[in-house]
Amino acid sequence: MSFIKNYKLVIGLLLFCVFVRSQKNFTTFIEPRVAINYNLSKLYSHNWSVANRSTIYESSKLEFNALQFDFGHFSNFRVGGNQNLSLGILYRYSELFEQESINEFRITEQYNIISRSNKVRYGHRVRVEQRITSLLTIHRFRYRFTLDMPLEGQNLDVGESYFIGNTETLLNVGKDLKPIYEQRFTANFGWLLSSKTKLQFGVEYRLLNFTETIEHRLLLLSSLNFSL
């Protein structure tokens, strides 16, 4: 039964990718990521990550083009049994790959709350970001709704798979910058390889500037997560 459910989800993702591919102003990226999580106490934890983004399809042709490296860190503070506050920093290094690109320093403030119903877990996340470059500072406001569940049984055990899906709304504002709205839809399949290691693959569809000239972006995601 779990195989049939997984099969239907994969077919749905493939059909979705075909739909996105038919849109105008369409670009596809790949984004592998490695993250390390560790707890300093029951109330305080750290997350470190490194990611790379590259273009593989743009302007109606296949073309590989490395764009950026992201180095990020989050400090997470638990303020309740199902809530936490986080402070994050990220450095995006892109000038190495494209001369017209600008490196970015980002500060993130985050609130997250999680609830559970049977085997499905729900999450609400609010983020405020300051994206700082040599040209301007962009303030970004984000809300994300997430659900995740094991695909085999009521609980996730080592060797089993899980699904994570979310949708996120974003608003970018800044001095002399017209507001830019964005909507994202993400689906990930993952496997608990060991009690401290997870492997995930997924897709993310982005509608950028959907109140003006819409840009369609598809990200092919992969991540390896370690817990120390």
Short descriptors:
mainly beta, eleven-stranded mixed beta barrel, globular
Distance separating the two termini: 34 Å
**Basic shape:** globular
Q: What is the helix/strand order?
A: HEEEEEEEEEEE
> Could you name the ranges where pLDDT drops below 50 across 5 or more consecutive residues?
none
Given helix and strand content, the structural type is mainly beta
* Share of residues in helices: under 10%
Based on the structure, what is the oligomeric state of the protein chains? Answer: single chain
Mean pLDDT across all amino acids: 89
Instruction: Assess the beta-strand content as a share of residues.
Output: over 45%
Strands of the largest sheet, in order across it?
Answer: 1-2-3-4-5-6-7-8-9-10-11
Main pleated-sheet profile: 11 strands, mixed, barrel
Question: Helical element count?
Answer: 1
CA-based gyration radius? 18 Å
Count of extended strands = 11
Structure description:
The protein has 228 residues and is mainly beta. The chain has one helix at 2-21; strands spanning 26-39, 44-58, 61-80, 83-93, 104-117, 120-132, 137-150, 161-174, 177-194, 197-208, 215-227. The chain has an 11-stranded mixed beta barrel. The chain is globular, with a radius of gyration of 18 Å. The two termini are 34 Å apart. 2% of the residues are buried.
Blueprint of the fold:
Elements: H1 2-21, E1 26-39, E2 44-58, E3 61-80, E4 83-93, E5 104-117, E6 120-132, E7 137-150, E8 161-174, E9 177-194, E10 197-208, E11 215-227
Parallel strand pairs: 1-11
Antiparallel strand pairs: 1-2, 2-3, 3-4, 4-5, 5-6, 6-7, 7-8, 8-9, 9-10, 10-11
